Amino acid sequence: MKLVCDRGALAEALGTARMVVTGRSPKPVLNCVKLVAEKDRLVVTATDLEIGMHLSTSKADITEPGTMAIPADKLLQIVRESTDPTLTIESEQEAVHIRGQDSHFKVHGYSPADYPAVPAFSGSADFVIPAGTLGRMIEQTYFAAARENSRYAINGVLFEREGPKLAIVATDGHRLALTRTVLEVAQDPGSQKSIVPPKTLQLVLNLMKDPELEIKVRIAENQILFQLGESSVCSTMVEGNFPPYRDVIPKELDRKAHLLRDALLSAVKRAALLTNEESKGVRFSFTEEGLVLSSRAPEMGEAEIKVPLSRFEGEPIDIGFNPGYVLDALKAAHDEHITIELRASGKPGILRTGPDFLYVVMPVSL
Amino acid sequence: MAIRILPKLVVNQIAAGEVVDRPASVVKELVENSLDAGAGRVDVAIEEGGRQLIRVADDGSGMSPDDLPLAAEPHATSKLESSEQLARIATLGFRGEAVASIASVSRMLIASRAVIDGKPAAEGYQLQVDGDQRSDLRPWAGNPGTVVEVRDLFFNTPARRKFLRAPSTEFGQIADMFARLAMAHPQVGFTLSHNGRATANWPRVTSLTQRCIAVLGEELADALLEFEHDQPPRLDAGQSASGAAARPPRVWGLAGLPRIARASAKFQYLFVNGRPIRDRGISHAFREAYRGLLAADRQPVMVVMLELDPGQVDVNVHPTKAEVRFRDPSAMHGLVLGAIRRRLLLTDLTPDARVGLPQDKWENLGGTSISAEDGQVEGWTVDGAGAARGGSASGLEGSGSPGHAGRGEGSFVDRFRRMSPSQQRFVYEDVRKALAESGHKPEMDDSPLLDHAEGEQSDETAAKPAVESAAPVARPVPILQVHKSYIVTQDEQGIVIVDQHALHERVMFEELSRRVLGEGRPLESQRLLMPELIKIGARRVGLVEELSPLLQRLGIDAAPMGPDTIGIHAFPTFLFDRHVSAEEFVLGLLDQIEEGRLEVGGQTAQEAALHRVLDMMACKAAVKAGDRLSEEELAALLAKRQEVERASNCPHGRPTQIRLSLKELEKQFGRT
After folding, report:
1. What architecture is domain A127-246?
2. Of B24, B7, B5, whose CA–CA distance to B102 is shortest?
3. Between residues 600 and 659 of chain B, which touch chain A (CB distance below 8 Å)?
4. Does domain B218-236+246-345 have CATH number 3.30.390.10?
5. Could you state, in order of their start, the residue ranges of all structural domains in chain A?
6. Is B597 strand, coil or helix?
7. Which of the residues in chain B have pLDDT under 50?
8. Which of B522, B523, B528 sits opposite A173 (nearest CB)?
C-alpha cells in the first residue's frame, strides 16, 4: 500500500478515531486504527468493539491500494506534529513508513487481518434527518443520561420513532429531557425503539460539519448505524428497558411562568455561586411581581437574584431546584423564550422552549 | 410474737451489713477517718486480703481519753453537730456509724495519742473492742495520731465471711480503693503493704497531677492531658441550703489520650470534694467527650475532681457514700463534658510513629536483641537505625540486622497498607509498649503537665507530655499519595502520614453532623422522577414505617410500595453526589437495626441512631483506600483537617494520621 495524503484531513480523521480507540486495551490491535487505501479514497476505521466507525477522505492519492493496522496514538502524534502539507504513507509488511520533506518515520503495526470487522452502513435507511436537526436533538438530551446503570437502561438515550414522529429522550432519574421532531423522510411507517450510548451520539455530533447534510439512520437488531456523507458510525445499543417516560411527565400544571432564557441562565449561575455540597438547592420564588432566586451555603453566605417574568399565571409558589439541572436545560434550550410550569413545591416542574423541547426536573427539599 | 428492742450488737451488725460489706470498705472508712483527722501520712497494712488484719495508722489529731470510748459507739462523731450541718458536709465521714459497725463484726483495737493545740498529749490510750465486749482504757505508748487494727473481720458473721473472695481479689479491691483515696489527697503520704510487702508508697507531693501520675503509672505521664475549669459565679442560681451564695463549681482533671484507652471503665476516677464516687451521668459525659475518638469498646483513662459547694451535692444518699446526688446533675454533666472536650480540641491528637528502638536502648542491648524487639513491634521497624548505626559504630553491630537495612519506606508503607484498621491500633500499642519497656521513662518534676505545654526543647522526647504538640499545624507543602491509600506530607514537627479514607470519613461526618444535628434541619434531598424500588421482604416493610421520622431527618422519603417492596421517593443530594446507592444504603441500615446494632425507639435512642447513620453515610461517602486523588483533591482534603473538629480520629476512633517526628528521624539516621 502506498499513498500521498493531505495531512490536515488525516489528522482530523485520526483525532475523531482517538475518541474510540483509547489506547488502554490489553489487546494491542485494539489500540490501532485500520487504514484502508481504496482506489480513490482513504478510509480510517476505528473501534472499541462497541462503537465502530469508518471515516473516509478523498484527499488522498492512492498509488497502491492496501490495508494496515497502526497504533492510533503514535500515528496521530506523528501526523499532528509534522509540518508538511502532505505525507507519504507506505507499508512494508506490518510496518509503515511515513515520509515528509525532512522526515522519515517507521512505525511497527499489526496484521490488519486481526482487526475486528466494523459493519458499514448497508441497505436502506429507516429514516433520514438533517444534521442540523439531529445535532440539536442530541444536544438537548444526551447530557441528561445517567452515568451509571440502574434497574432501567437509562445510561443511554432513547430514540423512539412512530411513523414520521421521532422523539429522543434521556433521564437520570432526577430530570428528563425530551425533544421531538417530525421527519420528512421515513421509509418505514412502523415504529422503532433504540437506546443509544451517549458516547456514540457525541461522536456523531463531532462528525457533523454541514447542518444541511442528510444523515441516514438505520436500526438493526442490536445495532444503530449512522451514515454521514462518506463516513459512518455504528454502535451496539444499550440493553434493557427504558422507563415509561410518558408517565413521569406531569400534566395539568396550574402555575406557568414565561421568561427569557438568558436572564434565567445568568441568574441561576449567580445563585449557584452560594451553594455547596451540603446545601445545593436554589430556591425559586415565583410571584406575579417576578421570580426571586435565593441560595444559602451554611457558613459561607447567601445570595438573592431577581429575574423579571414576562407573564405569570397561577398562585405564587416556592420550589427548590438543583441549579445544575436547570442550567443544563437552559443551555440546551435553543429558543429565547422559555416557560416553566409548576404545581407544588414537592412536585416536578417542567421547562419548555418552542414546541419541541420539554424538560422535567424534580425539586430538592429546602 | 412480742416486739423487742434489738440488742445493740445486732443493731450495729445490721448497720455493718450496709456500710462494711468487704475489707475494702473497712479500709475506706478508716482511711477517711484518718484524712478527716488531718493526717499528713497514712500507713495501711493488710494481711490475707484484710481477712486477718487491716491496720491503718496516721499522724492525725488523735483522740483524747474522753473521746476514745465514744469512738466505738454508734452515731458518735466529732464531725457533725446539727442537722443543718448535714446539708453542708465538708468532711469525708459524718454519720458516726463506721467505727461502731466495723467493731461489731471484728476484733478491733483503737489506739490514739491526741494532739492538743499543736502539742502531742503526754500519753496515748488504747481500747480493745471484740464484738460487744470492750476492754477498759489502757495507756499506750505510741506516736501522736491514731492506729486502728481490725482483726478477724466478720468472725461473728459467718455468712458474710463465707462470701469473701480469695485474699488476692480482696486486696485488689483494697488497693483500688486506697489508690482512689490517695489520688484526691496529694498532700498526704500514703503507704500500703500486703502480708508485709510494700505495694504502694506515695510520698506527699504538692500537686494533684503528681499524685495522680504516681498512682496511674509514670509511663502514662505523656499521654495525660491536664485540664481545669472554673465556672464563673452566677447571680441567678446557686443558692445553697443555708442561704449563703454558693461557691461556683470547679473541675480539674487528667484526660487520657485515645491511644491509652482501656477496655473497661476501671481507669476512670471521679471525685467530688475529695470523695471517690461513681456517677452514671458523669461517666456518660466521659464517653460523650470522646465520641468519635475511641472505638465503641474502649473507655478513656480519666481523672476528674469536682469541687462543689457542699450545699450543691447530697452525699448522704448511699450507705458507703459511693454515690452522691447533685442538685443540678445536667449542669455537672455539661461542666465535665465541656472541660474535657475543650482540652481535647486544643490538642493535636496525632500519634507519633516510632521507627525502630530508641538509640539508648539498643546501645545497651547490642545487635542481637534488636531483631527480638523487631519481632515484637512487628513490621514497624524500618531498621535504618541498625544500618546507619552499624556504619558509624565501625562494626560494633557486625551483622546485627542483616537484610533489614534497605527495606526502607517501601516495606513500611506496604506493611501498613496491608494491615486492617484494627490491627493498626494494636500494633501501634505494641510500639508504645515496647517503648515503655525500653526504659524510656518519662521524668517528672514539680511543674504540672501544663507547663510542658509551653514546649521547651527537651532531649527526652518521650518524657514530654503529648500536649506539647498542641501547636497549630502549618499548611503542608509537599503532598504525595502512596498506594492510592495514604497521603504523606509534612508539618513543622516531621512527616505526617494520613489515612485518606479515615480522614475523609471524619470530614464527611462532621459536615453531616453539623448539617443534621447543628441546624436541626433534614439533609437536603432530591426527589426522584420514578421511585427507586427496593425489595426488602415483608417482615421489614413495617420496620421502614417505624423508621420514618429518622429517615425524614436524613432526607430519605421511603414508603411501602407493595407487600415486600419499598419505594424511595427522595434521597439526600449529598449521597447522590458521592455515588452512594439508595438501595445499598437502606438495606445496610435495616441490617443494622435487625442485628440490634441500632435502636430506634425513644428520643436519645434516635439521637444515637442518627449518629450511627451519619457515620454510615460518612463512611460510604468518603473516598476509599485505592481511590486515586488529584493533587487538588489531596490538598483540599488535608486543608480540611484544620476546619474540622477531632480531625485526628475517624468517627470509629481510629487515628487518621500518624507522625514521624524529625527527632525520630534524626535518631534513626544517627544525626543526634
Report:
1. Roll (3.10)
2. B24
3. none
4. no
5. 2-114, 127-246, 250-361
6. coil
7. 234-243, 357-428, 431, 435, 438-476
8. B528
CATH 3.30.450.20 fits B477-672, yes or no: no
What is the pLDDT at residue A174? 92
Q: Cβ of B520 under 8 Å from any chain A Cβ? A: no
Closest alpha carbon within chain B to A366: B524
Report the C-alpha gap between B6 and B74 in whole angstroms: 14
Pick A322's closest partner by Cβ from B512, B526, B528: B526
CA distance A298 to chain B (A): 8
Beta strand pairing call for B250-256 and B53-58 = unpaired
Give the residue carrying C-alpha cell 438543583: A322
In sign, the C-alpha dihedral spanning A3, A7, A8, A13 is positive
User: Which residues of chain B are in CATH 3.30.565.10 domains?
Assistant: 4-205
In the three-class reduction of DSSP (H, G, I as helix; E, B as strand; rest coil), residue A191 is classed as strand
> Which of B245-254 are b and which e, b meaning 16 or more Cβ less than 10 Å from the residue's Cβ?
ebbbbbbbbb
Q: Do B555 and A365 touch (CB under 8 A)?
A: yes
Q: What is the DSSP string of A243-282?
A: --GGGGS-----EEEEEEHHHHHHHHHHHGGG--SS---E
pTM of the model: 0.56
Beta partners for residue B560, in sequence order: B566
Mean per-residue pLDDT pooled into runs of 10, chain A (366 residues): 93 92 84 92 93 92 93 94 93 91 93 92 88 94 86 90 93 94 76 92 90 90 90 92 92 93 96 85 94 88 94 95 95 92 93 93 90
Architecture of domain A2-114: Roll (3.10)
Residue intervals in chain B for CATH 3.30.230.10: 218-236+246-345
Q: Residue A363: which of B527, B555, B579 has the nearest Cβ?
A: B527
Q: Is the ipTM of this complex over 0.85?
A: no
pLDDT for the residue A233: 95
Which one, of B434, B441, B438, lies nearest residue B363 by Cα?
A: B438
- Domain A250-361: give its CATH code: 3.10.150.10
Q: Which three cell numbers stand for residue A127?
A: 429514516
Residues spanned by CATH 3.30.1540.20 within chain B?
Answer: 477-672
Q: What is the CATH number of domain B4-205?
A: 3.30.565.10
